[in-house]
Design brief:
alpha/beta; Ribosomal Protein L4, Chain: A; 6-stranded mixed β-sheet; 34% helix
Length: 208
Amino acid sequence: MPTVKVINLNGEIIGEENLSDSIFAAPVHVPAMHQVVVAQQANARQGTHSTKTRGEVRGGGRKPWRQKHTGRARHGSRRSPIWVGGGITHGPHPRDYHQKVNKKVRRLALKSALSLKVSEGSLVLLDRLDIEKPSTKSMMSFLSEIDAGNKILIMVSESSPAIYKSAANIPGAMVLHVDSINVYDILNNRRMVLTMDAARKIEEVYGA
Protein backbone atom coordinates (compact mmCIF):
# COMPACT_ATOMS: atom_id res chain seq x y z
CA MET A 1 0.00 0.00 0.00
CA PRO A 2 1.69 3.24 -1.14
CA THR A 3 2.21 5.97 1.42
CA VAL A 4 2.02 9.58 0.21
CA LYS A 5 2.85 12.77 2.08
CA VAL A 6 0.00 15.07 3.08
CA ILE A 7 0.68 18.80 3.02
CA ASN A 8 -1.28 21.92 3.87
CA LEU A 9 -1.70 25.13 1.91
CA ASN A 10 1.54 26.47 3.42
CA GLY A 11 3.49 23.56 1.95
CA GLU A 12 4.10 21.98 5.37
CA ILE A 13 4.03 18.20 5.75
CA ILE A 14 1.28 17.38 8.23
CA GLY A 15 1.18 13.62 7.88
CA GLU A 16 1.00 10.64 5.57
CA GLU A 17 -1.85 8.80 3.90
CA ASN A 18 -2.16 5.26 2.58
CA LEU A 19 -3.66 4.99 -0.89
CA SER A 20 -5.27 2.10 -2.71
CA ASP A 21 -2.91 -0.53 -4.08
CA SER A 22 -5.12 -1.27 -7.07
CA ILE A 23 -5.01 2.34 -8.29
CA PHE A 24 -1.83 3.98 -7.01
CA ALA A 25 0.46 0.92 -6.95
CA ALA A 26 -0.68 -0.89 -10.07
CA PRO A 27 1.79 -2.26 -12.65
CA VAL A 28 2.75 0.46 -15.12
CA HIS A 29 1.46 -0.55 -18.56
CA VAL A 30 3.27 1.71 -21.05
CA PRO A 31 1.50 0.46 -24.24
CA ALA A 32 -1.90 1.20 -22.70
CA MET A 33 -0.85 4.73 -21.73
CA HIS A 34 0.55 5.30 -25.21
CA GLN A 35 -2.65 4.13 -26.89
CA VAL A 36 -4.84 6.31 -24.71
CA VAL A 37 -2.70 9.43 -25.15
CA VAL A 38 -2.58 9.02 -28.93
CA ALA A 39 -6.35 8.54 -29.04
CA GLN A 40 -6.95 11.57 -26.79
CA GLN A 41 -4.83 13.81 -29.00
CA ALA A 42 -6.45 12.44 -32.16
CA ASN A 43 -9.95 12.98 -30.78
CA ALA A 44 -9.09 16.60 -30.04
CA ARG A 45 -8.53 17.28 -33.75
CA GLN A 46 -11.38 19.04 -35.50
CA GLY A 47 -10.65 17.56 -38.91
CA THR A 48 -12.04 20.62 -40.71
CA HIS A 49 -9.01 21.13 -42.96
CA SER A 50 -9.93 21.31 -46.63
CA THR A 51 -8.38 22.08 -50.02
CA LYS A 52 -9.87 22.37 -53.49
CA THR A 53 -9.11 20.03 -56.34
CA ARG A 54 -8.76 21.22 -59.93
CA GLY A 55 -12.45 20.55 -60.40
CA GLU A 56 -13.40 22.89 -57.54
CA VAL A 57 -11.23 25.98 -58.04
CA ARG A 58 -12.52 28.94 -59.94
CA GLY A 59 -11.71 29.71 -63.57
CA GLY A 60 -9.77 27.78 -66.19
CA GLY A 61 -12.66 27.05 -68.46
CA ARG A 62 -10.82 27.71 -71.70
CA LYS A 63 -7.44 26.58 -72.95
CA PRO A 64 -4.77 29.18 -72.04
CA TRP A 65 -3.22 29.11 -75.51
CA ARG A 66 -3.30 26.97 -78.58
CA GLN A 67 -1.69 23.56 -78.53
CA LYS A 68 1.13 24.07 -81.03
CA HIS A 69 3.53 26.64 -82.50
CA THR A 70 3.80 28.91 -79.44
CA GLY A 71 7.16 27.74 -78.10
CA ARG A 72 5.57 27.13 -74.74
CA ALA A 73 4.53 23.95 -72.99
CA ARG A 74 1.13 22.46 -73.67
CA HIS A 75 -1.61 23.37 -71.19
CA GLY A 76 -5.30 22.68 -71.23
CA SER A 77 -6.51 24.57 -68.15
CA ARG A 78 -5.39 27.19 -65.68
CA ARG A 79 -6.84 24.99 -62.94
CA SER A 80 -3.99 22.51 -63.33
CA PRO A 81 -2.15 21.78 -60.06
CA ILE A 82 1.13 23.06 -61.53
CA TRP A 83 -0.35 26.53 -62.03
CA VAL A 84 -0.45 29.21 -59.35
CA GLY A 85 -4.05 29.32 -58.15
CA GLY A 86 -4.74 25.87 -59.52
CA GLY A 87 -6.15 22.88 -57.68
CA ILE A 88 -4.30 20.95 -54.99
CA THR A 89 -3.25 17.38 -55.70
CA HIS A 90 -3.98 14.90 -52.88
CA GLY A 91 -4.66 17.74 -50.46
CA PRO A 92 -6.38 17.32 -47.08
CA HIS A 93 -10.16 17.09 -46.87
CA PRO A 94 -12.53 17.02 -43.88
CA ARG A 95 -12.32 13.75 -42.00
CA ASP A 96 -12.94 12.22 -38.61
CA TYR A 97 -9.81 11.39 -36.59
CA HIS A 98 -11.70 9.72 -33.75
CA GLN A 99 -10.09 6.63 -32.24
CA LYS A 100 -12.04 4.26 -30.02
CA VAL A 101 -10.39 2.94 -26.88
CA ASN A 102 -11.97 0.23 -24.77
CA LYS A 103 -13.05 1.13 -21.25
CA LYS A 104 -10.75 -1.47 -19.70
CA VAL A 105 -7.75 -0.04 -21.55
CA ARG A 106 -8.61 3.51 -20.42
CA ARG A 107 -8.86 2.40 -16.80
CA LEU A 108 -5.61 0.47 -17.06
CA ALA A 109 -3.82 3.48 -18.56
CA LEU A 110 -5.17 5.83 -15.88
CA LYS A 111 -4.10 3.54 -13.06
CA SER A 112 -0.68 3.17 -14.69
CA ALA A 113 -0.24 6.95 -14.94
CA LEU A 114 -1.22 7.50 -11.30
CA SER A 115 1.01 4.65 -10.13
CA LEU A 116 3.90 6.09 -12.13
CA LYS A 117 3.54 9.47 -10.41
CA VAL A 118 3.52 7.81 -7.00
CA SER A 119 6.58 5.67 -7.78
CA GLU A 120 8.45 8.76 -8.97
CA GLY A 121 7.54 10.68 -5.83
CA SER A 122 5.80 13.29 -7.98
CA LEU A 123 2.38 13.06 -6.29
CA VAL A 124 1.43 14.73 -3.03
CA LEU A 125 -1.86 15.05 -1.18
CA LEU A 126 -3.30 18.37 -0.05
CA ASP A 127 -5.56 18.34 2.98
CA ARG A 128 -7.79 21.08 1.55
CA LEU A 129 -7.51 23.95 -0.88
CA ASP A 130 -9.34 26.81 0.76
CA ILE A 131 -9.14 29.88 -1.48
CA GLU A 132 -12.19 32.05 -0.97
CA LYS A 133 -11.30 34.76 -3.48
CA PRO A 134 -9.00 34.74 -6.53
CA SER A 135 -5.41 35.36 -5.53
CA THR A 136 -2.53 34.62 -7.88
CA LYS A 137 -0.12 35.61 -5.10
CA SER A 138 -1.49 32.94 -2.74
CA MET A 139 -1.31 30.26 -5.41
CA MET A 140 2.23 31.28 -6.38
CA SER A 141 3.27 31.11 -2.73
CA PHE A 142 1.84 27.59 -2.40
CA LEU A 143 3.52 26.36 -5.59
CA SER A 144 6.89 27.78 -4.57
CA GLU A 145 6.66 26.10 -1.15
CA ILE A 146 6.21 22.66 -2.71
CA ASP A 147 8.80 23.26 -5.45
CA ALA A 148 6.22 22.76 -8.18
CA GLY A 149 8.58 23.61 -11.05
CA ASN A 150 7.29 24.77 -14.40
CA LYS A 151 4.50 22.21 -14.87
CA ILE A 152 2.11 21.14 -12.15
CA LEU A 153 -1.38 19.63 -12.12
CA ILE A 154 -3.71 20.45 -9.24
CA MET A 155 -6.72 18.16 -9.06
CA VAL A 156 -9.74 19.22 -7.03
CA SER A 157 -13.10 17.64 -6.25
CA GLU A 158 -15.17 20.84 -6.22
CA SER A 159 -15.49 23.46 -8.94
CA SER A 160 -14.33 26.73 -7.40
CA PRO A 161 -13.96 29.79 -9.67
CA ALA A 162 -11.57 31.30 -7.13
CA ILE A 163 -9.15 28.35 -7.46
CA TYR A 164 -9.28 28.32 -11.26
CA LYS A 165 -8.73 32.09 -11.48
CA SER A 166 -5.88 31.97 -8.96
CA ALA A 167 -3.91 29.61 -11.22
CA ALA A 168 -5.02 31.07 -14.56
CA ASN A 169 -2.12 33.53 -14.89
CA ILE A 170 0.60 31.17 -13.64
CA PRO A 171 2.56 29.59 -16.52
CA GLY A 172 2.59 25.80 -16.30
CA ALA A 173 -0.03 25.57 -13.55
CA MET A 174 -3.18 23.64 -14.35
CA VAL A 175 -6.29 23.07 -12.22
CA LEU A 176 -8.46 20.14 -13.20
CA HIS A 177 -11.67 18.77 -11.72
CA VAL A 178 -11.41 15.14 -10.72
CA ASP A 179 -14.28 14.26 -13.07
CA SER A 180 -12.06 15.38 -15.98
CA ILE A 181 -9.07 13.26 -14.99
CA ASN A 182 -7.15 11.95 -18.00
CA VAL A 183 -3.89 10.22 -18.79
CA TYR A 184 -2.41 12.95 -20.98
CA ASP A 185 -2.61 15.73 -18.38
CA ILE A 186 -1.21 13.47 -15.68
CA LEU A 187 1.83 12.52 -17.77
CA ASN A 188 2.28 15.98 -19.27
CA ASN A 189 2.85 17.63 -15.87
CA ARG A 190 5.97 17.15 -13.76
CA ARG A 191 4.22 17.29 -10.40
CA MET A 192 0.69 16.41 -9.32
CA VAL A 193 -1.24 17.66 -6.31
CA LEU A 194 -4.38 15.80 -5.26
CA THR A 195 -6.77 17.13 -2.65
CA MET A 196 -7.84 14.50 -0.14
CA ASP A 197 -11.40 14.61 -1.43
CA ALA A 198 -10.22 14.14 -5.02
CA ALA A 199 -8.11 11.13 -4.02
CA ARG A 200 -11.08 9.54 -2.27
CA LYS A 201 -13.26 10.18 -5.31
CA ILE A 202 -10.71 8.47 -7.57
CA GLU A 203 -10.57 5.46 -5.27
CA GLU A 204 -14.35 5.33 -5.14
CA VAL A 205 -14.80 5.44 -8.92
CA TYR A 206 -11.85 3.35 -10.11
CA GLY A 207 -11.40 1.04 -7.15
CA ALA A 208 -14.24 -1.25 -8.10
